[in-house]
Amino acid sequence: MSIDVDAEFIEATLVRLVQINSVNPILDPASPGEGEIARLTAVALNDVGLDTQTFEPEEGRVSVLGTLHGAGGGRSLMLNAHIDTVGVEGMADPFSATIESGRLYGRGSFDMKGAMAACIGAVKALVDGGVSLAGDVVVAGVADEEYSSIGTTDIIGRCSVDGAIVTEPTQLDLCLAHKGYVWLKVTTEGRAAHGSRFEEGVDANLRMGRVLSELEVLERALRTGEAHPLVGPPSLHAALLNGGTGVSTYAASSELHIERRTIPGETPEDVRQEIQKIVDRLQESDPTFKASVDSYFARDPFEVAPDAEIVGAVERAVQSVTGRAPRHVGDTPWMDAALLAAAGVETVVIGPAGAGAHAAVEWVDVESVVQLAGILAEAAIEYCGVSSRK
Length: 390
Prior knowledge:
Layout: H1 7-18, H2 35-47, E1 51-58, E2 61-68, E3 77-82, E4 99-100, E5 103-105, H3 109-128, E6 137-142, H4 150-158, E7 163-166, E8 174-178, E9 180-189, H5 204-224, E10 235-243, E11 253-262, H6 268-285, E12 291-299, E13 302-303, H7 309-322, E14 328-331, H8 337-342, E15 346-349, E16 354-355, E17 363-365, H9 366-384
Parallel strand pairs: 3-6, 3-7, 7-15, 8-14
Antiparallel strand pairs: 1-2, 2-6, 4-5, 5-17, 8-13, 9-11, 9-12, 10-11, 16-17
Helix pairs in contact: 1-3, 3-9, 5-6, 7-9
């Protein structure tokens, strides 16, 4: 079913969203967070006819949930977009929302206020077109995706849906997979002593060097080993290294933080065991070597089957709106799609075209935002079904 979207409304909504500072306050404590943008989003959703609620999973961190109620008997669908952004360091005018040659500039325009405007435009198109869906369409404008995703985590506990479209930017292609990550800490033990007392001191930093050497071998093996067809190989890097208390003191301990990027099929325990085996080998070769491994944070990778019903619905909607078949792609950054998929929600990712996520110059292609609204509306019609009730 073809449906008309209100391009002027979508562009005006996008301008207003980008003009609001919604930098994540965890990333910049001086920033206001999502309060103002959540209020604007809630008003916009309410004005187009949705039953709208706001939630604070933590004080001052606000998410919005708007529901276009179906008549019953159909599948429910979530349109998910985060309303927080990263910081604005290095940006000349981050909230200008200036439009030049079809590109709207400003922090969050691409990542991902363009998508939020499209979600609002999609449900407006359904309401304006008098479409009576069988299932509910839920628009979730979530807080905190740029740090720990408290918004989507909270919404999942409040709202049960069958399918979800996470609208992270994809150039209007279908993202069927993305990487996850695990954060680990390795600690090597030494013995503090005066720098002149080599017979007393044990240098934990030098012992960490053995770990780093082994990690370099592992890192090369990961990058050159079996790769996922959409997201490529797994990887790791030694992110933070700290040890010692003074130049003339043997380091009593040394601490290394590792980020290990995972591909679909890998688990956090797989990764922890991978690093633990390195430590075990080093201890076997030298009984005086002492170290520990701690896996302290993880996000799962995401993958959806190409023949999933949500994928088919969005694919056909892209073909209808743009006249082209979308590519099936993967992405390397982590997204809230993994949380929804882990909760048993059939999920796919599609978003607008543009560039500059987290960069000093960020822009979104306005026409692609309008097209995305049409894609989301048509996908909702197919996925949720049209009611025969009057």
